[in-house]
Design a protein that fits this description.
Layout: H1 2-15, E1 24-25, E2 30-31, E3 35-37, H2 38-41, E4 42-43, E5 52-55, E6 60-64, H3 65-74, E7 87-92, H4 102-105, E8 123-129, E9 144-150, E10 169-170, E11 185-186, E12 189-191, E13 196-203, E14 206-214, E15 218-219, E16 223-228, E17 233-241, E18 244-247, H5 251-256, H6 259-262
Parallel strand pairs: 2-7, 13-18
Antiparallel strand pairs: 1-4, 3-5, 6-7, 8-9, 10-11, 12-15, 13-14, 14-16, 16-17, 17-18
Length: 264
Amino acid sequence: MKRALVLAAVLTALAAPALAGPVTLLADPVDDDGRITLGELFDGAGAASGVVVGRRTGATAVLEAAQVQIAARRAGLEWSNPSGLRRIVVREGGALPGGALAAEASARPAAASIGAPARMGASVEVLTYARSLAAGEVVQPEDVVWAPVQSHLAPAGAPQDAEAVIGLQAKRALRAGSPVGPRDLASPQVIARNDMVEVAYLSDGVELTVTGKATRNASAGEAVPILNVQSNRTIDAVAVAPGRAVAGPAAQAARRNPQQFAAR
């Protein structure tokens, strides 16, 4: 009986993935064949190095950190995500003649070079749309990639971080391959013109609410005049969530951080 229990324990241990111990996320992950593996993301992945966790179709790919953490655990690796990352950006890389890295050849220029006077024919890497977006669509991690364009086509003030545009909404139809411009996107609309909106007036711990009609569309954090249909007066408010706005002294704070008022 004792021998059978020992044998069962051994078989269970063999069936479970062996943990390779804590692994460390590489500071600048690169991939050279479009198949993103644990070995390209983590230092010390060992036997799990060849496990594919994502695909790259452009110059960069953006992976959800939580999904990577789950995939690593299933492969027997332990990554605690100590920095609390939400997303991981993986760049194209690989060997070039002479031993140079493709990642170095395609490295993004300093922010100061974007929008600076440029020679025709020179190229820079900018954030571009991986697919065409319709007006109102929200940008997902897979919708933007870094790609080279002629420097005179790079928009001034172009975003320098994919994280800055993910979750924003297209203000108009956007074409695949075109550079991401500073005025292409906005926070998702939460209030539409003629919506009935609950307005909270907040001051020194006192909260009064009134319902009125929105006079225009608004995203979270944007000013929106609300018509009080009973008094026929307009309230200067700031949109914070679908069907909700804030007025009074708290409105300025709502411009900077509408989320803190959204759940009230």
